[in-house]
Specification:
The structure holds two protein chains of two kinds.
Chain A lengths: L2 H13 L2 H38 L4 E6 L8 H4 L8 H10 L3 E16 L2 E10 L3 H4 L4 E4 L13 E4 L1 H8 L8 E4 L2 E9 L4 E2 L2 E2 L3 E5 H7 L7 E6 L5 H16 L4 E5 H44 L1 H9 L4 H37 L9 H28 L2 H4 L4
Parallel strand pairs in A: 3-10, 5-7
Antiparallel strand pairs in A: 1-11, 1-12, 2-3, 2-6, 2-11, 4-7, 5-10, 6-7, 8-9
Helix pairs in contact in A: 1-11, 2-9, 2-11, 2-12, 4-8, 9-11, 9-12, 11-12
Chain B lengths: L1 E12 L2 E13 L4 E5 L6 H8 L7 E6 L2 E2 L5 H11 E4 L11 H12 L3 H14 L15 H13 L5 E5 L7 H16 L3 E5 L3 H4 L4 E6 L2 E6 L13
Parallel strand pairs in B: 3-8, 3-9, 6-7, 7-8
Antiparallel strand pairs in B: 1-2, 1-4, 4-5, 9-10
The chains are: A alpha+beta, B alpha/beta.
């Protein structure tokens, strides 16, 4: 029996029961559509985040305290990990030629208040350079003034959201803001720019780094951001920063993260989450497989006479099993194709509704959901096919 | 063609053993037309199952076309059915979703006959049973007699040596029954060995000889003349 004949025969059998077939297909189709749509959403989220990162430029380095990539015994023997200090930031500014701008950063949460209105916001301590390094845009006024790292003025730059909440329609410039128990004069308001790199820039207050360290009673930095002169200088700058800080600290105890690395790890994380969500959707395919098994068992029971007849005219057990397996595979394949169409239409509708989200189903989600659907169909078709093959022809023909 | 020696077929029903066939010996020559009669439960159908290689004897020897089949495994039995045996059932056993032509084509699809040859043989086979005009009809669009003729066409399409018919006219009116019997007789004259199980003396009387079964044994072997005249020609 040729493969084409097998398929034609199986197709004929499936077409006999339109409603039942359609319902079974629906189960598989929902599973495949769910995988495709969820994977497309995840991929869209990934591309959205990547786009955000890239809009920040790709010449940024971040120095983070602690060594995350160390291997070997050194990781365990370093008894005294030195934290990042303002001295480190000054040294980088002075001795690393590729560093165009250096922005030391400390961060904390604090209550800010203007007259009777108060609000808990993130307070960032940094320098003038922070503006360029993070590509912030000023709405009104000035950013932090240039000046001595260690003697900042009592000034603050506030995010658009903070300005709106605390000052409402009044002009915040020149007004006094209480940050915890210190006072600062508002010199600038950021343009509304939403969340970047996980930080809502509308809801922050930026003050000189030395004042922030005093406010939080801290002597160390959260991290140091460096803007290098050109993308090509990233690797050299990274090496030089590590060498310089190793010399200052007596050992290599910092990690320098390039934006590419951040990008790559974000991308990995979102991919992994997408995969997990798609896998959960894939479970519904297994449920659909049970539907296929059910419909095939019913089919075997209904077609007992037909099976007996096939056996009587000299069709072997293996051939009978193949016929029913082919039907199960065809059912799942047809369901998978329908699901793919629905899924792609769904993604298309999503993109139309939310153009900002670059949702697109990744190829792996299409290939794996189709493959999985057929695999599930065949796997769940095995038991019914065996039942059909094992029927005693005499019994199947109703002759005993 | 068919040689049974001391064939028994025993079924176990709970604790008791039922001797569906009890020490049956019989020889049917090539081209014979034999009728098998007997009350319900006398073993007629079991005999037909064994002869048709659907079932195996519990003991004894059965040679079909010179080959011992009592010892064959399932796939060899399947092969023997495909090459040597055609079945015709009281209830036709046509596949309801397939047309007459597709029903006739069915055994050839699974036997691996090429598509072009299948089409020719289906056409020839349907023509020989006088159903060329009904090729595209489904079973529910055919009369009982037409259905049985499609079933006979299907049974013959792989050119078997033996045709086994179990109450072939049992579900048919007199006229259709006669047509079906005429067809079976014609095939028998053309050389096929024909065994017909029937309750109907009118059907049995057309056979060359008749086996009367009781309690799993062949009680008597008689000629058609022994059934007497005046019972009509068919069904």
């Amino acid at each position: 029996m040729s493969f084409a004949d097998l398929l034609a025969f199986a197709m004929g059998a499936i077409r006999g029961h339109r409603v039942r077939t359609a319902l079974t297909l629906l189960g598989v189709a929902i599973g495949v559509a769910a995988v495709v749509i969820l994977a497309a959403l995840g991929e869209g989220a990934r591309r959205y985040v990547m786009g955000q990162f890239e809009s920040l430029g790709s010449t940024m380095l971040a120095v983070v305290p602690g060594k995350t990539e160390t291997s070997g015994a050194a990781a365990f023997t370093s008894a005294t990990t030195r934290d990042l200090t303002l001295g480190d930031a000054e040294a980088i500014r002075r001795f690393v030629p590729e560093a165009r701008r250096v922005a030391p950063i400390t961060m904390g949460s604090e209550t800010v208040a203007h007259r009777e209105r108060r609000r808990q916001v993130g307070v960032v301590g940094s320098t003038r350079e922070f503006l360029e390094v993070r590509r912030l845009r000023m709405g009104r006024g000035q950013f932090l003034p240039e000046g001595d790292l260690r003697r900042g003025e009592a000034v603050a730059v506030i995010g658009a959201g903070v300005a709106r909440e605390l000052f409402q329609s009044a002009d915040p410039l020149g007004q006094v803001l209480r940050i915890g128990d210190v006072r600062a004069r508002v010199v600038g308001v950021l343009e509304p720019q939403g969340t970047q790199l996980g930080m809502n820039l509308d809801e922050i207050v930026i003050i000189p780094v030395s004042r922030a360290m005093r406010l939080f009673n801290r002597r160390t930095l959260f991290r140091i951001l460096i803007d290098v002169r050109a993308h090509a200088d990233l690797a050299t700058a990274k090496r030089n920063v590590i060498a310089l800080l190793a010399e200052r600290h007596g050992e290599e105890d910092v990690t320098v993260v390039t934006q590419d690395a951040v990008l790559a790890s974000f991308s990995r994380i979102i991919r992994a989450m997408t995969l997990a969500v798609a896998a959960i959707a894939g479970i519904s395919l297994a449920v659909a497989g049970i539907g296929i098994m059910n419909v095939m068992l019913v089919s075997v029971a209904e077609r007992t006479g037909e099976i007996g007849l096939l056996r009587a005219v000299g069709v072997g057990r293996a051939q009978v099993a193949r016929v029913f397996l082919a039907e199960a595979a065809l059912l799942s394949l047809a369901g998978a194709c329908a699901g793919l169409v629905v899924g792609l239409l769904g993604v298309g509708a999503l993109v139309t509704a939310y153009p900002a989200l670059p949702a697109r189903p990744p190829l792996w989600s299409i290939a794996s959901s189709l493959g999985l659907a057929v695999l599930v169909g065949v796997a769940f078709g095995i038991a019914p096919a065996r039942r059909a093959a094992r029927l005693d022809p005499v019994v199947a023909l109703g002759r005993r | 063609m068919i040689r049974l020696e001391h064939v028994s077929r025993i079924f176990r029903v709970g604790e008791t053993e039922v001797h569906a066939l009890d020490d049956v010996s019989e020889h049917v020559r090539r081209g014979e037309h034999v009728a098998i009669m007997g009350p319900s439960g006398s073993g007629k159908s079991t005999l037909l199952n064994v002869v048709g290689c659907l079932d195996r004897p519990s003991s004894g020897s059965y040679r079909l076309d010179g080959r011992e089949v009592a010892e064959l495994d399932d796939s060899a039995l399947t092969e023997a059915r495909r090459r040597l045996v055609g079945f015709v059932f009281q209830s036709f056993h046509l596949v309801p979703r397939l047309t007459a032509a597709e029903n006739v084509e069915l055994p050839m699809i699974f036997a691996g006959v090429a598509r072009a040859e299948r089409r020719e043989r289906v056409a020839a086979s349907l023509a020989s049973v006088g159903l060329t005009g009904r090729a595209r009809h489904r079973p529910d669009q055919l009369s009982g007699g037409e259905r049985q003729r499609v079933a006979i066409s299907r049974a013959m399409v792989l050119r078997p040596r033996v045709l086994l018919a179990d109450e072939p006219t049992g579900n048919l009116d007199t006229a259709s029954g006669r047509q079906v019997l005429d067809l079976l007789e014609r095939l028998n004259r053309e050389g096929i060995t024909l065994l017909v199980v029937t309750h109907d003396p009118g059907v049995a009387r057309r056979a060359g000889r008749i086996l009367l079964m009781t309690d799993g044994r062949i009680a008597r072997r008689i000629g058609p003349e022994a059934l007497g005249a005046g019972l009509g020609g068919a069904a």
